[in-house]
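Action item from last week, closing it out:
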Amino acid sequence: MMLYLIKAAVLMTLFLMIYQLFLAKINTFQFNRFYLLLSLVFSLTAPIIVLPINILKIPDINKNLEKIFQSEHSLLDEAIVSANTESLSFDTAAPTTTKQSTPSQLNKNSYFSLTTILKLSYFTGASIFFLIFLIKILSLSRLIQSNEHIKEKGLNYVLLEKDTLPFVFLNYFFVPKKTFQEKTLEKEIYIHEMAHIKQNHSLDILFVEALKIAF
């Protein structure tokens, strides 16, 4: 699992660097959207695809990464064993009847605690991001329930009491009530927000939010 997350994150970083260097300033919005979504999907699927490494005559990245992790674990194990052995050698005055843990047992316990800490850290971070996402969804739901909304031409207009910039989510169009009633919404803003709805940009946001939780 750890190798998969690392490889997927590396691929996402590379694609993002290419985007920032060559595509970010180009006003080809549809192509940029296609590139960003495709790069995310490719980054998620590529690490689990087995390629004919021997035929391509390139190093087996999976095995190399596994060797790196194994060597790091072995170095960590040796360091722990050395530290535990030294601590045991100083305890020469202890009674012979006292039961002491062997270096191998201490090593296993230390490694287990390190693995547990890493797992807890990951799930804690994922839980925090999930909580933030849940708060955002609940906030939108509260806006819909606490404000007047009108269905018109297949859209659900949510009329906000506060004077704020219009925005959309799924098929909900959030707009200040005064602006809607006086029909003073600028045409450019309306066209822009309608493009978000027609092209289902909210699904892009939900997809990325899910990735933020997982990664």
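Closing note: Residues 129 and 213 are 5 Å apart (CA to CA).
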